[in-house]
Design brief:
The chain contains eight helices and 16 strands. With 383 residues, the chain is of the alpha+beta class. The longest helix is centred in the first third of the chain and has 24 residues.
């Protein structure tokens, strides 16, 4: 009981306070890490919802914060790779560091399957102080980006999702996937992005969270937040250049459904940074012909006209077709003006081969034919 109260007191210290003794902070971190482990499931992916679990998580991240601050104060110009080695050696804390400017450094701190992010600023006295800790995100930051609540230890417990069924994005635990340095604003303000994922005990599709931030030298402010999903087998971060970056995202179809492990509707979200602030992504489908078939079936189900999507003969032939979970599909040929795509679904008696052409600058289904079983499998098949 005394130990739990001590950890609670340490975790509740003001954000600006930190221990100058790296060894003391390392000891605190190891003790808190053991306490978190006592409240974590055997697979390491779930935390129980007890007050003691919240206290242990708060103490763990407070100690991690103090340890990193002490290491930075010991060697203010420390290289990120050296900081990573020292944090690992002193306490087993996994750290990745990204310098935003000579006096500011962004930290990804991980323990087991869980993580958080700190931003440290070197003050006029030469010491580093934390100005952002995602595990302690609150107030205006959470108002601007409600999904940030998922990083809070109080929302890491397994009961959070049942309490907040309509606001699942506020429930953790979370881990950090990537810190991204972004182009500066026109007035010189720094920007960065944090790509995180929601830690789940099972499932082939994982929810993710992206936040884009402005750092003005004093305050870190969220500019944009998005949540999305992707399968375990697909990459999420796919591109970065001087204009911005791109993510690969699993979205939902209009008519088909997709299994947990299946790719679903694959898109890229391209974030190009304007002169100031942040802008929503440009979304591009990776399978526009499959999207057309999906929209066509959605129109049929709603008894709406399909003439702008397909030939009348196609609608007549498929009008009574039931559509449910997408099975395998693949391109048989793909050109700028003429493509063939094989599509199968659990409800189909036989796979369907669609011939898709360009008409008036838009894709249009010219014909459909039924194929032999398993025709959509083989090289290039998607599920």
């Amino acid at each position: 009981m005394l130990k739990s109260l001590l950890m609670l007191c340490l975790a509740c210290l003001p954000l600006a306070a930190h221990a100058g003794d790296a060894e003391t902070a390392a000891t605190r971190f190891r003790e808190a890490q053991q306490a978190v482990h006592a409240h974590t499931s055997a697979d390491g992916f779930e935390v129980d919802s007890s007050p003691a679990a919240v206290t242990a998580l708060q103490a763990q991240w407070a100690a991690a914060r103090d340890l990193v601050a002490a290491l930075l104060d010991r060697a203010p110009g420390i290289a990120p790779a050296t900081l990573t080695r020292q944090a690992k050696r002193s306490a087993g804390l996994a750290v990745y560091a990204l310098r935003l400017d000579p006096n500011a450094i962004l930290i990804d701190a991980d323990s087991g399957a869980f993580g958080t992010v700190f931003l440290f600023r070197r003050g006029d006295d030469g010491r580093y102080q934390p100005v952002l800790a995602l595990d302690a995100a609150a107030g205006e930051r959470v108002r601007l980006a409600p999904a940030l609540a998922a990083w809070q230890p109080g929302n890491a417990g397994s009961s959070c999702r049942s309490r907040r069924s309509g606001e699942w994005y506020r429930c953790g635990p979370m881990t950090v996937e990537r810190l991204i340095r972004l182009p500066a604003e026109a007035d010189g303000g720094r920007r960065f992005a944090i790509l995180g994922s929601y830690v789940l005990p099972m499932g082939g599709t994982v929810p993710h969270q992206l936040t884009i931030w402005r750092w003005d030298g004093r305050t870190a402010t969220p500019l944009l937040a998005r949540t999305f999903a992707q399968t375990l087998t697909q990459p999420v971060f796919v591109e970065e250049d001087k204009r911005g970056f791109a993510l690969r995202v699993k979205e939902e179809f209009q008519s088909f459904t997709a299994c947990e492990e299946c790719g679903g509707r694959q898109t890229t979200w391209r974030f190009d940074l304007p002169a100031t602030g942040a802008a929503p992504p440009r979304v591009r489908s990776l399978s526009t012909e499959l999207d057309l078939v999906d929209r066509f079936y959605a129109r049929l189900a709603a008894h709406r006209p399909t003439g702008d999507l397909a030939a009348p003969s196609v609608a007549a032939r498929l009008r009574d077709m039931e559509v449910n979970m997408l099975g395998s599909w693949r391109y048989l040929s793909r050109g700028k003006a003429d493509s063939q795509i094989c599509v199968d679904a659990i409800s189909f008696d036989r796979p369907q081969i669609f011939r898709i052409v360009r008409r008036g600058g838009r894709l249009w289904i010219a014909n459909v034919a039924f194929a032999r079983p398993h025709a959509c499998g083989g090289p290039g098949a998607h599920f």
